[in-house]
Design brief:
Number of helices: 14
Number of strands: 21
Distance between the termini: 80 Å
Shape: globular
Oligomer: single chain
Strand content: 15-25%
CATH superfamily of the largest domain: Aldehyde Dehydrogenase, Chain A, domain 1
Structural class: alpha/beta
Length: about 500
């Protein structure tokens, strides 16, 4: 499928230098809309991981000794550079990942926001002081960096998600080995190039591209890595958790979702439909927050089905850089086949296909990986298409008889990332908020749209309880040190000397 064109060859970034991989091999970066080769990136091996981890270990002692406000100045400069290059980086992201340009701009903007936010934390990184139970004694806590962080990120948000990991790790004084997705290497390169230009010292961040699963596993298992931060599939996250548990190594996992928009009978239906279309088909459904279930009270089911089919059929497929495009391609052929396979699963379970359901091959679409926006009806909550993450432009309509049933159906999946509720009744809204067991809840908005200063993450199989975003991210990348300062001039014994 790939068209042979002249394309640049890129390198790894290790210990402050752009270097070839030890294998000497490369892999192509492919535009999923056209098959065009955008560039060639190193197919790294285990020796490259060893070099990167060793560089990060050497840099750790120096970087942690840099005052946090000075570390923040580097991040702030990086944020300024991202602002200047937002349009360039967004266009490159749209070409390599497929998302429409306005969404790519939002991806870069989120990296900008996170970089500025964590730069601000360089003047805080607050600990605590508290009274002692003994006289003439001071008790306080402060944060310490953990060491070398392995940041392993997916392709669907190729600049935002790395920023969620790298910026809090760096402001806290850690060093990083960054392994981005094979499918979006250009955006990772752009982010690291900005950090280098902003003045990040050699070895503090190291970027290693790779194509083999074994190389990523080697990074996770590496004894020089103190913390693994991973975003991706639940199956891979579970494997990482098993490895890290055996080594008593810290890990932070942000995994899958099977999110729902709940539409109650009193909802503003115009607003709800806007939220559903954006949440189900934005980023071609390739978001962990995508709404692949629409839970609707029965009085509105037929109207929701009619409107949603009309809106889905009107969406224009095409290259993300075309301003007329509503829905871009999926990331690769493997994902395209996976989505197509769920069409047969849904039909076999008794679901009714209202629209879509096929690979789009008309005209230029046949050069890329396009799937028609798809809506299933007559879906039961226990069907596989209502339980498993499809990660494509596919959504299901599930009828319910009451708000209480809507909440029960929403909660009854292996995942627990995000739910949205559309209602005009504040009492129903608050009862839904209280009963929903996902990590994020939206009222009268879609399931898409996290803000960097708030914690992001989910329950159940969506992760292991950590949060990204906000100051809660610092709890992942730091550990607490508690200090007792006794100025009484005598030996005091806590608990024992308390009368």
């Amino acid at each position: 499928m790939a068209t042979q064109v002249e394309a640049r060859t890129y390198k790894n970034y290790i210990d402050g230098q752009w270097v070839d991989s030890t294998t000497g091999e490369t892999f192509p970066n492919i535009n999923p809309a056209t098959g065009e080769v955008l560039g060639y990136f190193p197919k790294s091996g285990k020796a490259d991981i060893d070099r990167a981890v060793a560089a990060a270990q050497r840099a750790f002692a120096r970087w942690r000794a840099v005052p946090a406000p000075r570390r923040a100045e580097i991040l702030f400069r990086a944020g300024e550079l991202l602002v200047q290059r937002k349009e360039e980086y967004a266009r490159g992201m749209s070409l390599e990942m497929g998302k429409v340009l306005k969404e790519a701009r939002g991806d870069v903007q989120e990296a900008i926001d996170m970089t500025y936010f964590m730069a601000g934390e360089g003047r805080r990184l607050y600990g605590h002081t508290t009274p002692s139970e003994l006289p003439d004694k001071l008790c306080l806590t402060f944060r310490m960096p953990i060491g070398v962080v392995a940041a392993i990120t997916p392709w669907n948000f190729p600049m935002a998600i790395p920023s969620w990991k790298l910026m809090p790790a760096l402001i806290a004084g850690n060093t990083v080995v960054f392994k981005p997705s094979t499918w979006t290497p250009q955006s990772a390169y752009n982010l690291i190039a900005v950090l280098e230009e902003a003045g990040l010292p050699p070895g503090v961040v190291n970027l290693v591209f790779e194509r083999e699963v074994g190389v990523s596993q080697y990074l996770v298992e590496h004894p020089g890595v103190s913390l693994v931060s991973f975003t991706g599939s639940t199956a891979t996250g579970t494997a990482i958790a098993t490895i890290c548990a055996r080594q008593n190594k810290r890990y932070s996992l942000e995994l899958g979702g099977k999110n729902a928009v709940i539409v109650l009978a009193d909802a503003d239906l115009d607003l709800a439909m806007d939220g559903i279309v954006w949440s189900a088909f934005g980023t071609t459904g390739q978001r962990c927050t995508a709404a692949s279930r629409i839970i609707v009270e029965r009085p509105l089911v037929e109207e929701v089905q009619r409107r949603l089919v009309e809106r889905a059929r009107a969406l224009r497929l095409g290259s993300g850089v075309d301003p007329q495009t509503d829905v871009g391609p999926v990331i690769n052929e493997e994902q395209l086949k996976k989505i197509r396979g769920y069409m047969d699963i849904g039909r076999a379970e008794g679901a009714r296909l209202l629209c879509g359901g096929e690979i789009a091959r008309d005209g230029d679409l046949g050069r890329g990986y396009f799937f028609q926006p798809t809506v299933f009806a007559d879906v039961r909550p226990d069907m596989r298409i209502a339980q498993e993450e499809i990660f494509g432009p596919v959504t299901d309509i599930i009828p319910v008889d009451s708000p209480e049933e809507a909440v029960r159906v929403n909660n009854a999946t292996p995942y627990g990332l995000v739910t949205s509720v559309f209602t005009r009744d504040v009492t129903k809204a608050m009862r839904a908020v209280e009963g929903i067991t996902t990590g994020l809840v939206y009222v009268n908005a879609g399931t898409i749209g996290a803000e960097v200063h708030l914690p992001f993450g989910g329950t159940r199989n969506t992760g292991n309880g950590h949060r990204e975003g906000g100051i809660g991210a610092l709890d992942v990348f730091t550990e607490w040190k508690t200090v007792y300062i006794d100025y009484s001039g005598r030996l005091q014994k806590a608990q024992i000397d308390v009368a």
